[in-house]
Amino acid sequence: MLEGMRLVLATSNPGKVRELKKGLAPLGWTLLSLADFPLRMPKEEGTTFLENALLKAAYVAKATGLPALADDSGLVVPALGGEPGVYSARYGGRETDRERNVYLLERMRHLKGEERKARFVAVLVLAYPDGHVEAYEGQVEGYILEAPRGEGGFGYDPLFYVPEAGKTFAEMTLEEKARYSHRGQAIKALLKAYEQGPPPREISQLE
């Protein structure tokens, strides 16, 4: 399981850092954050979650000389043509989570019932300094409510309702969210891959 391995979490989002640290705890790795390294992160110009996660992880691994794990994730609303997608963190040019939530609700004001279906997608890319990379994906289906519910989480969590749980992400504990969320699913895939130690290098997770 590479216990004691030092890994850099290639994100400055405190919510993601919190969830990744909790989810990866069983591996026994020493988790560092971007706060430990004065790096200027590259602009996210990818058109997919995988491209953006790969860009961030590879950059940090090369710059630090340590394995790096990047998360790129977002909300996909089919009735809006897939918006906000890879632009979830900067949707509509809005600056804060609250402003982006208000903007999303405005964009969806005419949508009812099944038209409010949505999914969260998370892609984790683990990049090593020697150029080897692995990717792990998770998805969760749900609905966008017409008004926010809950005080926890971050981003679109107060609007994203998971029928199976009967709650929004913002109403869940960290443990509950890990069970249901897209990021939780991606972390589980990574944990499974490293159950018996690192997966074989010849099996590329990107193919």
UniProtKB/TrEMBL annotation:
Protein name: dITP/XTP pyrophosphatase
InterPro entries named in the record: dITP/XTP_pyrophosphatase (IPR020922), ITPase-like_fam (IPR029001), RdgB/HAM1 (IPR002637)
GO cellular component term, pick one: cytosol
Free-text cofactor note: Binds 1 Mg(2+) ion per subunit.
Keyword Nucleotide-binding part of the UniProt annotation: yes
Residues at which Mg(2+) binds: D72
Reactions the enzyme catalyzes: XTP + H2O = XMP + diphosphate + H(+); dITP + H2O = dIMP + diphosphate + H(+); ITP + H2O = IMP + diphosphate + H(+)
Family note: Belongs to the HAM1 NTPase family.
Catalytic residues in the record: D72 (proton acceptor)
The EC number(s) this enzyme carries: 3.6.1.66
Annotated positions binding substrate: T11, S12, N13, P14, G15, K16, S73, F154, G155, Y156, D157, K177, H182, R183
One Pfam family this sequence matches: Ham1p_like
Natural source organism: Thermus scotoductus
Gene3D superfamilies in UniProt: 3.90.950.10
Keyword field contains Metal-binding: yes
Classification via HAMAP family: Non_canon_purine_NTPase (MF_01405)
Quaternary state and interactors: Homodimer.
Record's keyword terms, sorted: Hydrolase, Magnesium, Metal-binding, Nucleotide metabolism, Nucleotide-binding
NCBIfam families for the chain: PRK14822.1 (NF011397), RdgB/HAM1 family non-canonical purine NTP pyrophosphatase (TIGR00042)
Cofactor(s) the protein requires to work: Mg(2+)
